[in-house]
Design a protein that fits this description.
Length: 229
């Protein structure tokens, strides 16, 4: 049996991993992502626990009878921890969703995988690296969203508007997209015999158009029959 003082240190590592997981998950929760505080907390906790078991769980096989953690003869301290890297990859795949031309959840999946790495670092006793990495991940997430850094800052937004043929509505809609820096990646237009037009747009945009903005556009023009975003 491991010394009590060492077991308390292991508990500290697990608790610290949970805290770091919660901090990373808070940023994801604020953006209403699939994996939030609870997911990141549990992943970090589980990774830290597995790291501790992988590194110290076989100490009874390697002790010299007097000193604990005397050596590693007959044990591989990285065997269990190595499986966390691939195992969490399957968990991350569960938060990746593809809808039409839009793929969502890639950043969140990468965050879950990295949170597992934080748990492994803290579980192995690398406090400074684990805590500093937590700060770096949170800072990177915030800055990239704040300043829209990188091509993955764009969102593929699907907009469908049905209205009676009116050039002013078309101009206003396209102007709204242009003001938001949107680029039309796909467009489908259907016109019925009664003059009703349906626009199906797939737009690559940094700041997605909200339903409130389309509702305001609908209030201004009675010719608009319906919309979806």
């Amino acid at each position: 049996m491991l010394p009590v003082s060492l077991q308390f240190e292991f508990i500290l590592r697990i608790l610290l991993s949970c805290v770091c997981g919660v901090l990373v998950g808070l940023e994801r929760s604020r953006r209403l992502k699939e994996a939030g505080v609870r997911t990141h907390c549990v992943v970090a906790c589980g990774a830290a626990l597995l790291m501790i078991v992988s590194k110290y769980g076989f100490s009874d096989l390697t002790t010299d009878g007097v000193n604990w953690l005397y050596g590693t003869k007959g044990a591989d301290s990285a065997r269990i921890a190595a499986q966390v890297v691939t195992g969490v990859g399957f968990l991350g795949a569960g938060v990746i969703v593809r809808t039409g031309m839009s793929i969502k959840g890639l950043t969140t999946a990468a965050g879950v995988w990295t949170t597992a790495a934080l748990g492994l670092a803290l579980g192995s006793g690398m406090y400074f690296i684990g805590i500093m990495s937590t700060g770096l991940i949170m800072g990177a997430q915030y800055l990239m969203h704040r300043f829209s850094i990188g091509s993955d800052a764009y969102t593929i937004q699907e907009i469908k508007v049905r209205f009676h043929d009116c050039p002013a509505i078309r101009d206003r809609l396209f102007q709204l997209l242009e003001d938001r820096g949107g680029v039309i990646g796909g467009c489908s237009v259907n016109k019925s015999d009664n003059g009703e037009i349906t626009y199906d747009l797939a737009v690559r945009i940094r700041n997605p158009i909200t339903s409130q903005e389309l509702q305001q556009l609908m209030d201004e023009y009675e010719q608009i029959h319906s919309f979806s975003v």
